[in-house]
Design brief:
This protein is mostly helical and 178 residues long.
């Protein structure tokens, strides 16, 4: 029982926020209570502020890199010209991709525009189970990804999944600006 109590304490310490980790670390070093100490408060606030700005800079850099990589892939592999003019594309798979993307977009617009703004439905609880529409949209997105890769495999070969993944990540990162 004592071992379990120690394990639970360690687990709680691992899941603490950076503020709690800083307080624990600083308290261990100083061996003084951390209550109402202005020097301690300034150090803690500076540490937390530095941590937040570092995390924000990292997120922005990651976003810029993914969007830049997607733009580079689209430009380098000339995706627009390939999609509109190439005869190497497997047309039935490409048409399935178009259908799946259309289903995904329609469901997305229904869930994010029609329900909250036109119908006035309350926002969905994030802890609630997913509705059937979300499940269908998820399936359509996965099917679209597979259909895109199969349709364009004759054009780029083994690079197709890599190009697709880079463009997908660029699109996901670009969506955070909307």
């Amino acid at each position: 029982a004592e071992y379990m109590g120690t394990a639970l304490k360690l687990m709680r310490n691992e899941t603490n926020s950076s503020k709690a980790r800083f307080e624990t670390d600083l308290h261990r070093r100083s061996r003084q209570p951390a209550l109402e100490d202005p020097v301690y408060e300034r150090r803690r606030d500076a540490y937390l502020k530095g941590n937040e700005s570092r995390e924000t800079a990292q997120r922005v850099l990651e976003t810029v890199v993914w969007i830049g990589a997607a733009i580079g892939a689209i430009y380098y592999f000339d995706v627009y010209t390939v999609v509109t003019t190439s005869e190497m594309i497997i047309t039935p798979w490409f048409n399935l991709w178009l259908l799946c993307v259309a289903i995904f977009v329609v469901i997305g617009l229904h869930q994010s525009v029609y329900l909250p703004y036109i119908k006035g439905a309350p926002s969905v609880d994030p802890n609630a189970p997913a509705s059937r529409a979300i499940q269908v949209a998820s399936f359509a997105l996965v099917a679209a990804g597979l259909a895109w890769n199969v349709a364009l495999w004759p054009v780029w070969g083994w690079l197709t999944p890599i190009i697709s993944f880079v463009m997908f990540m660029g699109a996901i990162m670009a969506l955070q600006f909307f």
